[in-house]
Amino acid sequence: MNKYLVIGNPIDHSLSPKLQNYWLKENNIDATYDKIKLEDYEIKSFILDIKKQKIAGCNVTVPFKKTVIPFLDKLSPEADQTQSVNTITFDNGDLVGHNTDIAGFDAAIKKLNFSLKGKRVLILGAGGVVSSIILALKNMLVQEITISNRTREKAENLRVLFNNLKVLEWGKLIDFDMIINATSLGLNNEKINLDFSTLGKNKLFYDVIYNPQETHFLKLGKESGNIIENGKNMFIYQALEAFKLWHKIEPKVNEETLRILDDD
Ligand code: ATR
């Protein structure tokens, strides 16, 4: 039976097995999907197990999206551009790294009908998922992307991958049409110390976190009259794209899909 896994550290919180196993069952595919916590030194032999086809394929989450790259034979253009891999397939003898976070973010924004063409976007954070978000935003033809991160150097490093990025000191605010919380602040109800109350209304507040459903950041956005969206659809659609790569079938996203993720 084909075995799929998601690797990360920590990994306990991952809802990928619930979603992927639900879709496997729905589509009568005889395979399993599990999660495994790895350490850095274990990555190489894990990836080689895919090459030996002991494992059929995997998803990759924090903090390994970049770590896996040297062990792969090929990268999709998106994975190469972002230097971030969240899905690994085995195609004609080659280990291939893909990035489905970009399509996940894109699908989530399309569902909102909020056009970002020519708009200004402020991103808080510079962690693993941010290069994917930047590429998706560039494809949407946004006018300006500004990154603000506690460790400024990590924001500066993103300029190596993308030109025209602006960097803003952590704790400062500029005007924007969309603001994205891509930090882990909010996972444990920690607060983001920024005052959004004077910026006006009808902007888009987006949080990559979806558990809790409404972080303090999204609550602040809502209170000051803005549109809010959490990371749930991005999570679902990155998983959907990975499923398509492995099984060549597009799984359904319906009420039941949303419900199984709410159960937690
Ligand atoms: P990684 O950085 O390993 O890819 P991540 O979960 O993808 O991990 O990213 C965590 C993000 O949340 C980072 O941007 C981090 O900022 P630093 O680069 O300065 O570490 C940010 N973050 C986490 N805790 C934070 C805090 N208490 N205040 C501000 N930013 C924080």
Write a brief caption for the model.
The chain has 264 residues and is an alpha/beta fold. The protein has 9 helices and 12 strands.
Report the top-level CATH class of the largest domain: Alpha Beta
Note the overall shape. Answer: globular
Count structural domains: 2
Straight-line distance between termini: 28 Å
Search tags:
alpha/beta, Rossmann fold, six-stranded parallel β-sheet, 264 residues, six-stranded mixed β-sheet, 9 helices, 12 strands, binds 2'-monophosphoadenosine-5'-diphosphate, 34% helix, 2 domains
Characterization of the model:
The chain is an alpha/beta fold. It has two domains: 2-99 and 233-262, Leucine Dehydrogenase, chain A, domain 1 (Rossmann fold, 3-Layer(aba) Sandwich), CATH 3.40.50; 102-230, Rossmann fold (3-Layer(aba) Sandwich). It is 34% helix and 21% strand. The chain is built from nine helices and twelve strands. The protein has helices at 16-26, 43-51, 77-82, 101-112, 130-139, 152-161, 216-223, 232-247, 255-262, and strands at residues 2-8, 31-37, 57-60, 74-75, 87-91, 94-98, 120-124, 144-148, 165-168, 178-181, 204-207, 227-229. The strands form two sheets. Strands 2-1-3-5-6-4 form a six-stranded mixed beta sheet, with helices on both faces. A six-stranded parallel beta sheet has the order 9-8-7-10-11-12, with helices on both faces. Strand 7, helix 5 and strand 8 form a beta-alpha-beta unit. Helix 1 (16-26) packs across helix 8 (232-247), helix 4 (101-112) packs across helix 5 (130-139) and helix 4 crosses helix 8. The model has no long low-confidence stretch (mean pLDDT 96). The structure holds 2'-monophosphoadenosine-5'-diphosphate.
